[in-house]
């Protein structure tokens, strides 16, 4: 566990540094262009390469040394970061430079994360898997919460190029830690065995591995469906809040509500979660759905903040428990490709949700709850009418859908009994 904590600490520093750069470059891009479309395109560049390349990254993680895969991926990301800083110092930075650097870093993430997410199985006994996964979620939560605050202060003091330099230093710290720690080999003959097959064959083997285990396959489909609905909420919460409040209130909602992620991650890191991980997944998915439902009930900053806190609180518990199931039930020799394919399929729901969220809100739900809308004198009497209330209705429906999907999942034997039906590949120590 101590060795894992060293690796985790290096990645924590790197995540905070990357968050600083993400915030600073977002500010630079919007101030330079004033375009929401170009700002959104940066997020597409940050997501799409990862989704496309993660299955290949997982296959490579199974046939190559995972430590060196993380080191190489982090090194390329560091070079991209340093390049952006140098271009900015010389006043040569163009929009396409930024898109290219973000896309390359996203592609590196597609190789780094499948290797990094399998490290608990290399260093930690099964009884500490949930705790280790909680630590990983804690690092992500800390990056999301601390980076915007720090970056907002540092941009004024050392400018955007200085913030990017700090990110580069954080990469160096993470790399030095990785260089100092050897990774145990999963199998002495593993790399030779996989070298006889192509990467596409390895990805196909990962899909066949999941497909042959109905419990894992149905659990993956459940997450794809719920991720799609959560993606709708993720995009639309900002316009819903801004329909009745200002940007300062929105920031307070994100800050206070988002602290729930940190609390949930700390809880998982210290407690370790339920003995039956699938019960934790479904229990907190239900709480997540209820929180989304509550957030859409009224245009109230206090109500939305409370709902956001419990929603964010649930996420690290869900992810940590879900990862623990896969880490125990999937053969370590194929975890890289299986985990990467699982992530690519589940995360593919988010870009799809991002594309549909705007049209659904503007052309389907919002007209229903205008003052003279079709539902103004029925549902409108309960949740209100006017700007943003159509999005509130969509939140209500999404929350109800997530809760119903969770109830169905619990009553589906393949999901409820996934921990009983599949053998453990990693035994408690």
TrEMBL record:
<feature type="transmembrane region" description="Helical">
    <location>
        <begin position="301"/>
        <end position="319"/>
    </location>
</feature>
<keyword id="KW-1133">Transmembrane helix</keyword>
<keyword id="KW-0472">Membrane</keyword>
<keyword id="KW-0812">Transmembrane</keyword>
<feature type="transmembrane region" description="Helical">
    <location>
        <begin position="216"/>
        <end position="237"/>
    </location>
</feature>
<dbReference type="InterPro" id="IPR011701">
    <property type="entry name" value="MFS"/>
</dbReference>
<protein>
    <submittedName>
        <fullName>MFS transporter</fullName>
    </submittedName>
</protein>
<dbReference type="InterPro" id="IPR036259">
    <property type="entry name" value="MFS_trans_sf"/>
</dbReference>
<feature type="transmembrane region" description="Helical">
    <location>
        <begin position="249"/>
        <end position="271"/>
    </location>
</feature>
<feature type="transmembrane region" description="Helical">
    <location>
        <begin position="363"/>
        <end position="386"/>
    </location>
</feature>
<keyword id="KW-1003">Cell membrane</keyword>
<feature type="transmembrane region" description="Helical">
    <location>
        <begin position="339"/>
        <end position="357"/>
    </location>
</feature>
<feature type="transmembrane region" description="Helical">
    <location>
        <begin position="40"/>
        <end position="61"/>
    </location>
</feature>
<keyword id="KW-0813">Transport</keyword>
<dbReference type="Pfam" id="PF07690">
    <property type="entry name" value="MFS_1"/>
</dbReference>
<feature type="transmembrane region" description="Helical">
    <location>
        <begin position="157"/>
        <end position="181"/>
    </location>
</feature>
<feature type="transmembrane region" description="Helical">
    <location>
        <begin position="68"/>
        <end position="89"/>
    </location>
</feature>
<feature type="transmembrane region" description="Helical">
    <location>
        <begin position="393"/>
        <end position="412"/>
    </location>
</feature>
<feature type="transmembrane region" description="Helical">
    <location>
        <begin position="278"/>
        <end position="295"/>
    </location>
</feature>
């Amino acid at each position: 566990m101590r060795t894992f904590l060293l690796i985790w600490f290096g990645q924590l520093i790197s995540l905070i540094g990357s968050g600083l750069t993400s915030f600073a470059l977002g500010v630079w891009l919007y101030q330079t262009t004033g375009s929401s479309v170009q700002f959104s395109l940066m997020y597409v560049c940050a997501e799409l390469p990862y989704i496309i390349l993660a299955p290949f990254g997982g296959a490579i993680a199974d046939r190559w040394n995972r430590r060196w895969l993380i080191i190489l991926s982090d090194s390329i990301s560091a070079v991209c970061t340093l390049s952006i800083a140098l271009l900015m110092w010389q006043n040569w930075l163009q929009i396409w430079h930024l898109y290219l650097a973000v896309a390359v870093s996203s592609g590196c993430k597609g190789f780094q994360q499948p290797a990094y997410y399998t490290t608990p199985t290399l260093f930690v006994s099964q009884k500490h898997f949930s705790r280790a996964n909680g630590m990983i979620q804690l690092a992500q939560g800390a990056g999301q919460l601390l980076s915007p605050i720090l970056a907002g202060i540092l941009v004024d003091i050392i400018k955007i190029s200085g913030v990017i330099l700090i990110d580069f230093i954080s990469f160096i710290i993470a790399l030095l830690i990785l260089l100092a720690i050897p990774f145990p080999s999963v199998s002495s003959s593993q790399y030779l065995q996989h070298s006889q097959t192509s990467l596409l064959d390895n990805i196909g083997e990962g899909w066949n591995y999941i497909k042959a285990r109905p419990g894992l396959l149905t659990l993956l489909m459940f997450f794809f469906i719920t991720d799609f609905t959560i993606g709708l909420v993720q995009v639309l919460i900002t316009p819903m809040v801004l329909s009745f409040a200002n940007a300062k209130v929105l920031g307070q909602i994100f800050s206070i509500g988002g602290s729930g992620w940190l609390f949930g991650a700390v809880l998982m890191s210290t407690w370790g979660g339920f003995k039956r991980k699938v019960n934790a997944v479904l229990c907190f998915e239900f709480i997540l759905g209820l929180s989304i439902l509550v957030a859409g009930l009224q245009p109230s900053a206090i109500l939305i903040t409370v709902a956001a806190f419990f929603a964010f609180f649930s996420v690290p518990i869900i992810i940590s428990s879900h990862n623990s199931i896969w880490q125990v039930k999937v053969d370590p020799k194929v975890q890289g490709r299986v985990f990467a394919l699982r992530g690519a399929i589940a995360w593919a729901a988010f870009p799809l949700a991002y594309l549909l969220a705007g049209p659904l809100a503007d052309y389907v739900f919002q007209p229903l709850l205008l003052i003279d809308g079709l539902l103004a004198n029925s549902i409108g009497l309960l949740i209100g009418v006017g700007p943003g209330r159509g999005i509130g209705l969509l939140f209500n429906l999404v929350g109800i859908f997530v809760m119903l999907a969770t109830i169905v999942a619990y009553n589906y034997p393949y999901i409820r009994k996934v921990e009983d039906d599949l053998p453990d590949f990693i035994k408690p120590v």
